[in-house]
Design brief:
Strand order of the largest sheet: 1-2
Number of helices: 15
Radius of gyration: 22 Å
Shape: elongated
Helix content: over 70%
């Protein structure tokens, strides 16, 4: 208690600095891999990707975050264990932000797409074990986290595999690919819009006062998706395509059509990411601000101070702009060669997996979901189409993310204790 009373303002300022660093890491790593397929297929330039990320990350965070955020991400530790020692929780959350942010920035430097959720969870577990003891951690949650390393990439990989196979059979492996693209792409637009609408309704609209039943949400999603498909059909019909392009460049006109879908799915991925993972930065920061403001009282939910969400949003955009290229390159070109049609299949599969996970309560990492989807698209062309060396490095980085976050958090926690005691 004495630490909070004597150093309250300083603690909030330090937490804000480290929260900004964490948001920077999220932007450099998570947003970069969400946009990687779009940039890798050249459907978007890096500048366009940053602009889309700015708009849709903010929209996802505001709509899906609402006015409150869970102060302890994923309920991985028992906040009741810290009721008599709120100063330990404050120092631990600050240590977790710096530890997870530092790991994300290091991973981004090497081009490894890792999970921001697992980074912050590992960090929180690390400080909880050394400050209170193993009993402060809800270990049952870990089964779902470890399982998600396999389950979510597998689900998105299977969806992406069959999505791309359908594109091959209906469009590319036919006598008239361009006309078949004009015929079938509106159907893929319908699917894309349906998934985007379901993600939005499931994750966002309840927080802005629009409460729909599952049936109403599905009907509204279908109606919007039909309108999008019809608008897409009119747009594609009105485009001018040069028949000579397809004779010189392999299916160039068809890929132009899928390039349109890549932009739509990039927006969906940015929104889904904003609704999920911005809380990894602002959740612990909100916890620190709330505990300090209340003089040491711990609550499971905390109102977000007006400055926290912009701080997180700005950090994410700066991280993407300054360090995002390496992770974009790993996801967009390192795992397998992507074209707009392949990238579309991967991103739609990722968004669909987010919908499935949110509906079933399956723990999910957006990063691992997207990597699994890119693998699925690569496997559709045979195992030789995958860069197994890059995949090995990615899997190793996933496995060491939890212990890396924990070890860094423990070291930083002890340093902070020494500084403020």
């Amino acid at each position: 208690m004495d630490i909070i009373a004597n150093y309250g303002t300083t603690l909030v300022l330090v937490a804000a600095l480290f929260g900004f660093l964490m948001a920077w890491g999220i932007g450099a790593n998570d947003v970069a891999n969400a946009m990687g397929t779009s940039v890798g297929t050249k459907s978007l330039t890096i500048r366009q990707a940053i602009i889309i990320a700015m708009i849709f990350e903010f929209a996802g965070a505001y709509l899906a975050g609402g006015e409150v955020t869970a102060t302890i991400r994923n309920g991985i530790i028992d906040s009741n264990a810290f009721v008599d020692k709120p100063d330990l929780l404050v120092l631990g959350m600050i240590a977790s932000l710096l530890a997870a942010g530092a790991w994300l920035i290091l991973a981004s430097y090497f081009g490894w797409p890792v999970s921001t959720t697992h980074s912050i969870i590992g960090a929180i577990v690390g400080f909880a074990v050394v400050s209170i003891g193993p009993e402060a951690v809800q270990w049952s949650k870990f089964g779902g986290i470890v399982g998600s390393w396999v389950i979510t990439p597998a689900i998105s990989g299977v969806i992406a595999y069959f999505m791309f196979i359908s594109v091959q059979k209906l469009i590319f492996n036919t006598d008239d690919p361009l006309n078949n693209a004009k015929r079938y792409v509106p159907f893929y637009m319908f699917l894309t819009a349906l998934v985007i609408c379901l993600v939005t309704i499931k994750k966002g609209l309840t927080h802005v006062g629009l409460h729909l039943t599952d049936g109403e949400g599905i009907l509204l999603s279908i109606a919007i998706s039909i309108a999008v498909a019809f608008a897409g059909w009119i747009y594609i019909r009105g485009q001018k395509y040069n028949p000579q392009d397809d004779s010189k460049m392999h299916f160039a006109n068809v890929e132009k059509v899928f390039g349109i879908l890549m932009v739509i799915t990039a927006c969906a991925m940015a929104f889904a990411h904003g609704s999920n993972d911005v809380a990894n930065a602002i959740g612990p920061l909100s916890a620190v601000a709330s505990i300090v403001a209340s003089g040491g009282e711990i609550s499971g939910q905390a109102a977000i101070a007006w400055w926290i969400l912009p701080l997180g949003g700005i950090g994410i955009v700066i991280g993407l702009a300054t360090m995002g290229e390496k992770v974009m390159a790993t996801v967009g070109t390192g795992i397998t060669h992507l074209t707009p049609s392949r990238g579309f299949a991967a991103q739609l599969a990722t968004a669909a997996t987010v919908v499935i996970a949110s509906g079933t309560g399956l723990p999910i990492s957006t990063t691992q979901t997207l990597v699994g989807a890119v693998m699925g698209v690569g496997l559709a062309r045979g195992i030789a189409a995958l860069n197994l060396g890059v995949l090995r490095n990615i899997v190793v980085s996933w496995v060491i993310t939890l212990p890396a976050g924990a070890i860094l958090a423990i070291v930083i926690f002890y340093v902070l204790q020494a500084c403020f005691s």
